[in-house]
Design goal:
Bound molecules: histidyl-adenosine monophosphate
Shape: elongated
Radius of gyration: 28 Å
Strand order of the largest sheet: 1-5-6-11-10-9-7-8
Number of domains: 2
Strand content: 15-25%
Structural class: alpha+beta
CATH class of the largest domain: Alpha Beta
Distance between the termini: 49 Å
Length: 429
């Protein structure tokens, strides 16, 4: 039997879930703290909803299948199309601008590299129905609040922001026709993943003259973040949007995280304005999260346009950063009390006492098999028990049990009638 999960899929063992839960808790708290409402679409959607025309990588990575009634279905690679579907289906009942959040598992048949799996959990924040950059600022405030809760400050994470209209303005100046802009964005997004020469060839394949391809890569293919106040980008009307976002970030106290970076365009075709991506400060890891404004997606998918902006933040890279950079170690799963017994004849009493502790709201584990104290304490220690209750015939005859606090080793004989109260006072007191 194959003991590994399918390539790219992950098993979460108990200790792995401890770290994942901490990440989910930071996402959940930040979302609710900022007034987002939770929604949850299904993992399986119709293939048609998720399929795309533009040359996006994600379109080739869809896990696509046919059900027994010949429906063309797919495991979602992202949540955004489902959000569009759900909002549009009940638009009359929704208060706009809608602020929605979810954590959902997404599947992509990716080439396996560090930070990229074929399945990941993605936190999504979206604001639908708000055209102003206030929405971007609110989303980024929420993201940075989650980062802060995970112990990651502006020194650890940088959010690179750009606006596709700034890039489009520059492409216009270079004579690249509007119809080709999305193609050019898709190529620019591959910067750093493929040699510049290959990217230039791709631009030529998309219909750009060789000279224009050179100019595009020279102006936008660089690593350095350009200035918004001078140079060719500053003249773009959309540069003002970026400045307003930076100013709002300043007012809200997270400007330290942000960097203008004309090189960030993102790999999804639907973005129309602001785009952003979060990275660790040393750029050792893949993108931690990414998002942007997609004002045309609702109109394109449903015929009713709605301005929208959102972001997706996966659990894979953040877990790598927290363990490798912040030294977070998976915590041993803990239990408050472990009940054990000296001989098997006490099995009924042990089960009853354990049930009473559970009924009193105490997290309890029962060691099913009887044994010597040493063996039992070894087990309780591996289970991370804070207290043990060990039943032996002599104490039990007197209506009592030996209770040990594992950290201090202090042992006390406690009357069974008082056991739950005694433990609760020490565990919760
Ligand atoms: P995306 O950039 O494709 O955007 O994914 C967002 C985040 O999901 C990435 O930054 C990364 O954290 C995580 N992620 C994506 N693919 C993988 C993978 N194969 N393995 C591990 N993590 C991964 C979107 O999906 C957009 N729908 C986000 C969005 C929401 N835009 C607007 N609203």
């Amino acid at each position: 039997m194959q003991l590994e999960p399918p390539r790219g899929m992950r098993d979460f063992y108990p200790a792995d879930l401890d770290l994942r839960d901490r990440i989910f808790a930071a996402w959940t708290d930040a979302s609710t703290l900022h007034g987002f409402q939770r929604f949850e679409p299904p993992v399986v959607e119709s293939f048609e909803l998720l399929a795309r025309k533009a040359g996006e990588e994600v379109a080739q990575q869809i896990y696509h299948f046919e059900d027994k009634s010949n429906r063309q279905l797919a495991l979602r690679p992202e949540v955004t199309p489902s959000l569009v579907r759900m909002i549009s289906a009940r638009a009359q009942d929704i208060v706009f601008p809608a602020k929605w959040w979810t954590i959902g598992q997404c599947f992509r048949y990716e080439r396996m590299t560090r930070g990229r799996k074929r399945e990941h959990f993605q936190w999504n924040l979206d604001v639908v129905g708000e055209p102003s950059v206030q929405a971007e600022a609110w989303i980024l405030a929420t993201v940075t609040s989650a980062l802060g809760a995970l112990g990651l400050g502006a020194r650890d994470v940088r959010i690179h922001i750009n606006n596709r209209q700034v890039v489009a303005y520059l492409l216009g100046e270079l004579g690249v026709p509007r119809e080709s802009h999305v193609d050019v964005f898709m190529v620019l997004d591959k910067k750093g993943k493929a040699p510049v020469e290959t990217l230039k060839e791709m631009l030529v394949e998309k219909g750009l003259a060789a000279k224009t391809a050179d100019e595009v890569m020279d102006l936008l293919g660089g690593e350095a973040a350009d200035s918004l106040s001078s140079g060719p980008l500053a003249a773009s009307p959309a540069a003002e949007e970026v400045r307003r976002l930076l100013d709002l970030a300043d007012a809200m106290g997270f400007a330290d995280y942000l960097r203008f970076d004309s090189g960030v365009v993102r790999g999804l075709a639907y973005y129309t304005g602001t785009v952003f991506e979060g990275f660790d400060a040393e750029r050792k890891f893949r993108a931690i999260f990414g998002g942007g404004r997609y004002d045309n997606l609702f109109g394109d998918m449903t015929g009713t346009g709605r301005p929208a902006v959102g972001m997706g933040f996966g659990d894979v890279v953040i877990a790598e950063i927290l363990t490798e950079l912040k030294g977070l170690t998976p915590a041993k799963p803990k239990v408050e009390v472990c009940v054990g017994m000296f001989d098997a004849a006490l099995g009924r009493d042990a089960a009853r006492i354990a049930a009473e502790l559970v009924a009193a709201g105490i997290q309890t584990d029962l060691a099913f098999s009887a044994g010597k104290p040493g063996k039992f304490f070894g087990y309780a220690d591996r289970r991370g028990a804070r207290f043990t209750v060990f039943l032996a015939p002599t104490e039990l005859r007197d209506g009592a049990a030996a209770v040990k606090e594992m950290a201090s080793g202090v042992q006390t004989t406690v009357a069974l009638a008082e056991l739950a109260g005694w433990l609760r006072a020490r565990l919760r007191g």
